[in-house]
Amino acid sequence: MTPAIATGLKDPSLIVEKSYINGQWVSSKSDKVFEIQDPASGQVIGTCPESTTVDLEDAIQAASQAFLTWRTLPGRQRGRILKRWFDLIVENKEDIGKVITAENGKAKGDAEGEALFSASFFEWFAEEAPRIYGDVVPHSTSGGRAQILKQPIGVCGLITPWNFPMAMGARKLAAALAAGCTVVLKSDGLTPFTSNILAVLGERAGLPKGVFNVVTALNNTPALGLALCQSDTVKKISFTGSTRVGKLLMQQSASTLKKLSLELGGNAPFIVFDDADVEVAVASALASKFKVTGQTCVCANRIYVQEGIYKSFSKRLVEEVQKYRVGVGSDSSVTHGPLTTGIGKTEEHVQDALSKNATLLLGGKRLSKLGPNFFELTVLGNVDDSMKVMSEETFGPLAALTKFKTEDEVIQRANSVEVGLASYVMTNDLGTSYRVSERLEFGMVAINTGVISDPATPFGGVKHSGMGREGSKYGVDDYLVLKTIVTGGINTEYKL
Ligand SMILES: NC(=O)c1ccc[n+]([C@@H]2O[C@H](COP(=O)([O-])OP(=O)(O)OC[C@H]3O[C@@H](n4cnc5c(N)ncnc54)[C@H](O)[C@@H]3O)[C@@H](O)[C@H]2O)c1
Ligand SMILES: O=CCCC(=O)O
Fold first, then answer.
1. Fold exhibited by the domain 9-264+465-482
2. Residue whose C-alpha is closest to residue 423's, from 302, 262, 282, 244
3. Where does residue 496 rank: exposed (0-12), middle (13-18), buried (19+ CB within 10 A)?
4. Cα 453 to ligand 2 centre (Å)
5. Level-2 CATH architecture, domain 268-447
6. Ligand 2: nearest atom to the Cα of 164
7. Where exactly are the transmembrane stretches of this chain (predicted)?
8. What is the pLDDT of residues 348-394, one digit of tens each?
9. What confidence tens digit (pLDDT) does each residue in 186-242 have?
């Protein structure tokens, strides 16, 4: 029977209700499946295998076998496959967007945007694959010679979240494959179909069997995470998700001393100085705060506005947010879809702030008539540091505005959290922009823009936001190890 999620696609064969192991679409050996729901309606839209550690081990072995040959292909050849993959994602952008909307809920524009964002990593790393250069270094002795090779680390375990079900996988996968590694991807149980499309298109792009494997699971996720960490065959884990789970994976990886990339939680400060252009600041806040209904790890969470600009900024922000339309993501007039999960936390942060005398400027309630996971786009004023939203990441559509007086004060408040992923600074003063970005304890600073992510720039955090960098010329490094080759006893005497 065709699953509901395939309805309306130009190419229904993009949907597969299986795991992908060693070039085959397979059920779990346990024969168990789990159901996937549309967050807008709560309706079941398909099922996927509830994979066990036995299934996972099959995928690890397939990746290990495939590594023997994949690593030996010239980077140029690996790059050609990645380039074809890029083309296929772009060609299937609309179908991919529909699938993302059906399982994640995000609005059509965000969903198709995610398809293109995903594709951009295949294009970028297709170009990096042939340019993984080592070094020749001068040795300390006259008879010694040294060269440094960059080699693929081996089989990589990737664990990705539901908020960007294709892009978070693509950013890791394309870098790993460019480096010459092979991959086992554990997709998120809420959004497995989008990750499976990566495998469908990878096969069409000419990827050899076993190089990329996808294992689906919902309830067995912790067991699979543990098995990936404890496997000696898996040499690296790359994870995107919460700080809580990142720390758990790090603990679990201690016995096998794995290389780790951890892209974890954020709590981004968005700082508006008195000299900022109000329209630029508002447009940037809208882009950063409300993207994917507030469910990105780089979403502005704490909006610090200097006293002199507070009134005009808050007024213009509310006017612009009012123009948005919340609804079912597939409706092309809708700008913001439902939350995928965790609507309770948004509601809790709003109620906590209101109970402590924040001012409700817009929204503030569930939109239960639309479905179980809809919440109004919300703006709160006069927020202070005692409120939960100032210390915890909401991961929802709540813009919390708080006033500040001085540069020193706002830096101290912005840096007061334990995480450090994205931050934003709105100012027209060059000196302020340099000083503040150098003092912010965050992996990324955006000045006069609300958009940080780009395939050409390194993405990642400091402090409890994790380690490693994705995208950019640095992104491949996370999947490489250095090998030193020293040659001694070279006779360096020669006659003219
Ligand atoms: N830094 C980034 O790039 C980035 C990107 C997206 C989301 N995030 C963060 O993720 C959080 C929101 O997502 P969430 O709450 O669903 O996060 P989460 O950590 O609960 O889930 C993320 C992924 O981890 C899996 N997972 C959960 N428990 C696991 C375990 N024991 N072993 C292995 N895998 C496990 C989940 O199935 C999911 O695929 C936010 O804090 C957000 O900031 C960070
Ligand atoms: O949610 C995490 C990453 C999103 C992005 O790269 O913009």
1. Aldehyde Dehydrogenase; Chain A, domain 1 (3.40.605)
2. 302
3. exposed
4. 7
5. 3-Layer(aba) Sandwich (3.40)
6. 1
7. none
8. 999 999 999 999 999 999 999 999 999 999 999 999 999 999 999 99
9. 999 999 999 999 999 999 999 999 999 999 999 999 999 999 999 999 999 999 999
